[in-house]
Amino acid sequence: MVIISAADITKSYGTQSVLKGISFSINEGDKVALIGVNGAGKTTLLKMLAGEEEPDTGNLYLSRNTSTVYMRQNSELTSEKTALMETMSVFSDLMEMEKEMETLDLTNERDMNRYHTLQERYIEGGGLTYKQKCISALKGLSFLDSELDLPLSEISGGQRTRALLAKILLSDAEVLLLDEPTNHLDMNAAAWLEEFLRESKKTIILISHDRYFIDKVANRTFEISGGYMRSFEGGYTEYYRKKAEQDRSIMKKNEQKRKEIARIEGIIDQQKRWNQAHNYVTIKSKRKQQEKIAQTLEEEAITELSIGFKLEAEGGTGNDILIAEDLSKAFGDLQLFSHVNMHIRKGEKTFLLGENGTGKTTLFRIIMQQQESDTGIIRFGSRVKPGYYEQAFDHLPKEMSILECMREYYPTTEDGILRNALAQFLFRGDDVNKIVGNLSGGELARVALCILMMSGSNFLLLDEPTNHLDIASREALEEALINYNGTYFIISHDRYLIEKLSDRIFDLDGGSVRTYEGGYEYYLRKKQELIQREPIVKVETKVQDKDNEYRRKKDERSRARKLASALERTEKMIAKREKEKAELEEELGLAGADFEKVMEISEKIGKIDEELNRLYDEFMELSEESEG
Q1: What is the pLDDT of residues 488-497, one digit of tens each?
Q2: Is the backbone of residue 125 left (phi > 0), alpha (psi -120 to 50) or beta?
Q3: For the chain, which terminus, N or C, has the lower number of CB atoms within 10 Å?
Q4: pLDDT for residue 212 is more than 90
Q5: Strands 2-13 and 31-35
Q6: Which residues contact 117 (CB under 8 A, 6 or more apart)?
Q7: Strands 320-331 and 16-27
């Protein structure tokens, strides 16, 4: 049954036309993915379906009494309630029944009858299971037991977003409108969400750059390009294949028709040269024939502007690229990892996976000698030239323009070459004068990739390189990595990228590293086999199994507490040292011409500055590990 239909919808903002007469229909229970470059109009369409915007022309129909709920990108709950209580509020009718049943006097016949009526409605409405559903949803979205009863004001923005997602998933709305629902989700939470949406009977329309997620969830894919929409059956992989076939077929047919139009034009020219009366009759007939063929020309796919670049390794290396032996790192009593050993060889395509907070970014910084390990050694092979893509972009000078930033990295390179390089990443004309501090996440990612492209590095360490990139840019990066003649090591949550590129995965789990030879699907299968084998070897009874699960969760909570404690301790130490520095600077101002005192105070300030720099780095490390 059709639940949503649109006919010839248009939408413009000023002189910019976003949607140009799009039409579609969506059936009850469909799982539809909206894809297209940033700014294509996907969110505009979602807002129309949510009733927040109206089309300029055309008609949009939702079947009568159809309810929708809309989750905006990066939105989050703001409430003093706990995550669990806020999620349970979608079952407020059941909670009201509970309260009323508690107040009834069961010795009173009228109250007893009322109790039985309420009880029947309560059970039919899911009263016996709704609380467990809420707990399961929150835990599926990576909440720990200890976090369920924390006020939302005391947890991170990412956790508040996940709490909102849980609330929306459990709502009674028939249509879920989700804008980038996998933002702030780790791999386990994304896998849980995929399963939940697949099993849901609801109609779901989602925007996502996560191609693996689209493949797992969507049964239809709508592409918005150049203001127009095309519909394809299946997820992303099917869409990509069918779109390529369709585009090739249209181009081939149009090419044949244009050749026929040109052939007819040649006949018309010949008839004109003969200049006889009957020739003009033929010309008129041929013109009509041309026009008729021209009317059958099909609209070809509009080529959107997207990045296109090549990564090239300069200089050969030996067979050994990176050797890490017995690495460990702790912050106070928080042990991130220990006894980590890795050996990466020339040409290998390796990935580093692990849950948020396990120390992946810290490990990369240790490899790049931006941070010291507690134990172990790092050795690069001969002639290895590493290039590092940092996901936080803190290395980019925020006060400079994009062009000035490129000059900072490549001071001897001519501006013309720098501009040409930036043009490959869609920074053209006056765009190069944009201030780095004002750029969006996607723009910062493109600047960082441009810097990396020009480095000529033969060993790339990339920390979440597809974050902030739209699908077209992700495909361009994939293509560049496929054709790259060097070696790379990548941290990523992009499962499509991992499956497509990886031939070896390092899994940072439980403070140690396990190696899997193969892609993402192989890694999942082998990890699941490992989990299934472990109870046979280590656990003899169900009681022990439960105890093992309890200990695992206890360890997770302990790790989270230690991470929070380390953050708080570092923050307090920073505040203390900053206060000491301010007092010394005030004392320095009063020292006047007392040279010895000035030197003594300056030396103290210098030492505090050194410690502050270390503390700032540590605080940033801990923040990134806690947020993933």
Answers
A1: 999 999 999 9
A2: alpha
A3: N
A4: yes
A5: unpaired
A6: none
A7: unpaired
Cα separation values, 177 from 27, 36, 49, 471, 500, Å: 14, 16, 8, 20, 29
Give pLDDT tens digits for 407-433.
999 999 999 999 999 999 999 999 999
Task: Supply angle C-alpha 36, 37, 40, rounded to 5.
Answer: 75
**Residue 198 CA: distances (Å) to CA of 129, 259, 284, 549:** 21, 48, 59, 27
Tell me the chain's radius of gyration from C-alpha atoms: 30
* pLDDT score, position 543: 39
| Paired residues of 68 in beta bridges | 175
Question: Looking at residue 6, what is its pLDDT?
Answer: 95
* Average pLDDT, integer, range 121-128: 91
Distance CA 294, CA 35 (A): 31
Structure tokens at 63: 């079947």
Check pLDDT > 60 for residue 551.
no
Q: How far is CA 564 from CA 149, 358, 516, 557, in A?
A: 16, 14, 31, 11
pLDDT for 550: 46
Q: Alpha-carbon dihedral of residues 161, 165, 171, 174, nearest 10 degrees?
A: 130
Do the Cβ atoms of 258 and 302 come closer than 8 Å? no
Look at residue 540 in the predicted model and tell me its pLDDT.
41
Cβ burial, residue 181 (10 Å; 0-12/13-18/19+):
buried
Backbone phi and psi for residue 384, each to the nearest 5 degrees, phi listed first: -80, 130
Higher-pLDDT residue of 514, 612: 514
- Residues 251 and 89: their CA atoms lie apart, in Å, by 54
Pairing of strands 203-207, 220-225: unpaired
- Under the banding of pLDDT at 50, 70 and 90, the label for residue 534 is low
Please tell me the predicted confidence (pLDDT) of residue 618: 75
* β partners of residue 223: 35, 230
pTM of the model: 0.74
